[in-house]
Design a protein that fits this description.
Blueprint: H1 5-22, E1 26-27, E2 33-35, H2 36-43, H3 48-53, E3 56-58, E4 64-67, H4 72-81, E5 91-100, E6 112-121, H5 126-142, E7 148-154, H6 161-175, H7 181-189, H8 200-206, H9 218-234, E8 239-240, E9 254-260, E10 268-274, H10 278-281, E11 289-295, H11 296-305, E12 318-322, H12 328-340, E13 345-347, H13 354-363, E14 368-372, H14 374-378, E15 381-386, E16 391-396, H15 400-412
Parallel strand pairs: 1-5, 7-8, 12-13, 12-14
Antiparallel strand pairs: 2-4, 3-4, 5-6, 6-11, 7-9, 9-10, 10-11, 14-15, 15-16
Helix pairs in contact: 1-5, 1-11, 5-9
């Protein structure tokens, strides 16, 4: 991704990170390369991610490594290995960076994509689920987005999910001949994954399948109702969808997904849920957790779909133009002084004529052009020109930084 799209993603990271910091989250960094076993044990051996989408290879020592396809399992691994529980619970952590999945590239789906994600580790309070969900909602509202909906479900726990899966398998056995080949295999090894199928025939059959919401134990039902009640109190709108499951096996109880209009099939921009058994799967103590991940490329596409461009384009403050007899050392010294004062500045490095330099400044949409020439320097002055206002004035060369700073403050408020 190149400028200006790359800068839009950087701005989205900055906005989301600031909102997370306001909620008490701290940044964590995990490696791009992790042990393959980490993802097999956490995501699930029978998931599409593990079976078909991971980039996996052996290093020189024979260890199987994988480019991380998602961020939660690495965060929990780091939480356990670094004994972060000793710092107090819950731990509220967020991350951002590239993820990798070997998928067929299409609109909204890339083999390398960027995510911002957050995890709350060590609390099973339903309010935490609602707060995690509300973070994404706040990001979207801050950007002016409106055409999205939040889908909510509970996928049960160790107590109630096994009996539901038996009921679901029994239903799928009756329809196995009408299922696609993938769902026919899933029906016996990982039945919940049939709800991920995009085949129209399977979706029609699945629409009549038993809903997990009708099979929740009392504890899961109470937890889910409390999550929804907290979302109501936070002013977050949602739709309950008992067919919603996530494509990773570690989810338990809360599962959610923000879907956007105008993105086609790849319309999930932010999603997540609770993973109360993940730490145990990674040989840690029982530790509840909940989190989300947000796809930045899809978020940028959502802005485009709604015709929104919430970020002012980056503008260079000053372009220093030197005429032919200008002292190059003076030009470089001026650049350095401006930059050290926090003023963005650049200059010509190709020996262009003054006319060509002015054209370059116009292309860069700079706020001010500073013209340095032998005649002006002989008077101890430089010329400042505001291209937008078509006005110019002279300032003493020793007062350049102060003059530019004062002018930018009046014009831009900074």
């Amino acid at each position: 991704m190149v400028f200006p799209e790359s800068e839009k993603l950087e701005r989205l990271v900055g906005l989301t990170s600031e909102i997370l910091r306001l909620h008490g989250y701290n940044r964590i960094e995990t490696p791009v390369l992790e042990s393959t076993e980490l993802f097999v044990r956490s995501i699930g051996r029978e998931t599409d991610i593990v079976n078909k989408e991971m980039y996996t290879f052996e290093d020189q020592g024979g260890e199987s490594l994988t480019l991380r396809p998602e961020g939660t399992a690495p965060v929990i691994r780091a939480y356990l290995e670094r004994s972060l529980a000793s710092r107090g619970l819950p731990q509220k952590l967020y991350y951002c960076g590239p993820m990798f999945r070997r998928e067929r590239p299409q609109a909204g789906r890339f083999r390398q994509f960027s995510q911002v994600g957050a995890e709350v580790i060590g609390s099973d309070d339903p309010f935490v689920d609602a707060e995690v969900i509300s973070v994404s909602d706040l990001v979207f509202m801050s950007l002016g987005l409106k055409r999205y909906r939040l889908l909510m479900n509970s996928v049960g726990c160790r107590e109630c999910r096994p009996s539901y899966q038996e009921t679901l398998v029994a239903y799928l056995e009756k329809t196995r001949g009408d299922l696609c080949d993938r769902c026919a295999r899933r029906a016996s090894v990982n039945p919940l994954r049939v709800f991920d199928c995009k085949e129209e025939g399977c979706r029609e059959l699945i629409a009549e399948a038993p809903a997990i919401g009708d099979h929740l134990c009392d504890a899961c039902l109470a937890h889910f109702q409390s999550v929804l009640s907290n979302l109501d109190n936070l002013g977050v709108s949602y739709v309950t969808d008992h067919r919603l499951v996530r494509g990773l096996d570690y989810y338990a109880r809360t599962a959610f997904e923000f879907q956007f209009d105008g993105l086609g099939a790849q319309n999930a921009v932010s999603a997540g849920g609770r993973y109360d058994y993940l730490a145990e799967e990674l040989e840690g103590p029982p530790t509840p957790g909940v989190g989300f991940s947000m796809g930045l490329e899809r978020l940028a596409l959502s802005l485009s779909a709604e015709g929104l461009d919430p970020f002012e384009p980056t503008r260079l403050d000053v372009f220093v133009a030197g005429v032919e007899d200008a002292d190059r050392e003076k030009v470089l010294a001026t650049l350095t002084g401006l930059r050290r004062a926090g003023i963005s500045a650049d200059a010509d490095f190709q020996g262009r004529s003054l006319k060509s330099q002015m054209k370059q400044a116009d292309r860069l949409n700079v706020r001010l052009v500073m013209i340095i020439g032998g005649a002006e320097l002989g008077k101890g002055e430089v010329v400042l020109r505001d291209l937008g206002l078509s006005s110019q004035w002279n300032v003493p060369s020793g007062e350049v930084v102060r003059s530019v700073s004062d002018y930018l403050l009046r014009r831009t408020g900074r």
